[in-house]
Each structure stands twice: as C-alpha cells, then as structure tokens.
Amino acid sequence: MGALGRHRGAGRGSHHAERPLRRLARSPQPDRPCPACLDRPRQRHPARRRPRRPAQKRKRSSVTATEPPQKPRRKRPTIGVTVSRHSGWRIFPLIWLNLALAGARALRWDDAADIDLERVDGIVIGGGDDIAPSLYGTEIVARVTLDPARDRMEQSLLAEALQRNLPILGICRGAQMLNVVLGGTLHQNAFGVYSSRKYSTILPRRTVSVRRDTHLAHIAGTAPMRVNALHSQAVNRLGRDLRIAATDEAGMVQAVERTSEPFAIGVQWHPEHLFYARRQRRLFRALTRAATAHADGRDQRDGVASDMPAHQPVSAAFRDL
Fold it and tell me: Which residue segment(s) compose the domain that 90 sits in?
C-alpha cells in the first residue's frame, strides 16, 4: 500500500511537472495615428436621400362627419352684497361662501361709491343695524342702533334694483328694508308686541312655520323650520306687492316675499350662518337661478321653478332646519 501510494503521488507530481505553463497572449495595442493623417482634411460622402414617393390624392368621402355643436359655457351670475362697514368683514365671507356653493360670484358693497348695478345680476341686502324710523314716517320710541349712511345707500339701491327687475334676497335688516322701501312699516320693539321668546344667537333655536302656496314653500318646503335670531325689529304693515311667507309661534312675521316680478324674498333670520342646512342653502340657490334667468331675459320665477320642483322632499337629517 505504501508503494502504491508513493507511486500515485509520484505520478501526480510528475504529471504536473511535465505540463507546460500557459501564458495569455497580450492583445496588440492599436496603432497610433500618424500626425500627417491628422492634418489631412476629412472627406465627407454626400448624404444618401431616399427617393420621394409621388403624392397620392386622397379620395373624398361622400359622407362628411359633422361634430355636434357644443353648448357655450354659462357664465356665473354676479351678485352685489351690501354689508356694514364695521361688521362686513365677518358677514361677507359667509354670504360669499353660500353664493359660491350656489354657483354665483359675490361683490362686496359697503359704500355707495362702490355700487354699480351694471356689473351685477342680483343683489343681497345683508344684516346689520336697525333702520331709522324716519324712513317709514315715525319717531324713535325704543332703543335702536342706527346707521344713516347705510340707510340712504340701501334705500336708493333697492329702489333702482326694483326698476331694473333685479332679483333680491333680504337678510334680517334686508327683509325690513325691502318692506320699508315698498311703503311698509316696522315694529321698533317687536318683542314688546308679540309674546315670542327673544333669542340672540346664530344657532337654530327658533321654529318658524312656512305658509303654503308661497315661493318660500316652493323653495324650502312647508315643514317647520328651525332658524337663528339676532333681531329686535320686525315687519308691521306690509309694503306694496308683498305677502307674508313665514311666521313664528306667536305670529311675528319671519319672512316676506314679492308676489310679482322681480323675484324678491326677505327672511328675518340669517341663513348665511346655517350653510350646513340644505333648506337654507336653497335660498341662495333660488337667488342664483333667478339672477341667471334675468341675465338670459327669462321669467325669474320660472327659472327658480325649473330648478326646484314643487313638493320636493326634505331629507330627514335636515327636516327641522
């Protein structure tokens, strides 16, 4: 065994010893160009161009495809909004939001010099201070906070807007001003006349009843409505072409509306604070549709009716709002 092992080991050793070593041949280095060749100008071959194919005349089809005419994009109506100089900074953004949700633009007016009825398709008379009793032919008999400059501005604005048949939405003070401009009067201290509970909150605490067969009922339904309250005055004698659209439990007027053109509704509460309630947003939507109809030269009430069918069901979540 030892001899055999030595023989095998010797055989392996002798075999490796006899194997020649392999060396990798180095690849030849490329020849460096001759300096004389570098100075020689390079000859360019003319570019090969493909032969042009003769133009083939296209056969005209006997049937011509006509695209359906596209409807022009409707322009959003612009609404002028009157607000107080000292409180308009917090009231106007809410009205702007409600009008934007309804598809309209809003312009802020707190100075008579800013008013331009040529630029708008409707107006909103916002809330604010009390209306001077001298505007409806009486004297001050209760504690009031007045803004004579705004009284003059909105009095002339409403008179001209009615002549131009511009749709109108009056909010709190705006509803009272609409009534005064049309020849009506106000209760300076409405809670001394009615037994209604006085609230001073933007939360929906007061319940109002909407009368049937009115524009307000067509817009927001006839179910009892929960609204807020921030007022002390209220409508007394109705103005021309106005009717009562809603009252509270004690009979105090909470909404008035015009019976003829133009579309005009005044509410005693502040729907801009109740933008989360669908029935309140419908007031701004109705004004927007009336403004669009006015811009198109159509009947404003028909424009509102086509967008809000009568007896529209109210969601259970907003039944009381």
Answer: 78-306
What is the CATH number for 223?
3.40.50.880
Query: Measured between alpha carbons, how far is 219 from 239 in angstroms, rounded to an integer?
Result: 22
Q: How many domains does the chain have?
A: 1
315 is a domain residue:
no
The total number of residues written for the chain in this structure: 321
Name every residue whose Cβ is closer than 8 Å to that of residue 216 and which is 6 or more positions away in sequence: 210, 245, 246, 255, 257, 265, 267
Q: What is the pTM of this model?
A: 0.74
- From first to last of its 321 residues, what are the pLDDT tens digits of the chain? 454 444 454 444 445 555 555 555 555 555 566 666 666 666 665 556 666 776 666 656 555 555 566 655 568 999 999 999 888 889 999 999 999 999 999 999 999 999 999 999 999 999 999 999 999 999 988 888 899 999 999 999 999 999 999 999 999 999 999 999 999 999 999 999 999 888 899 999 999 999 999 999 999 999 999 999 998 999 999 999 999 999 999 999 999 999 998 999 999 999 999 999 999 999 999 999 999 999 999 999 888 887 664 444 443 333 444
User: How far apart are alpha carbons 119 and 305 in whole angstroms?
Assistant: 25
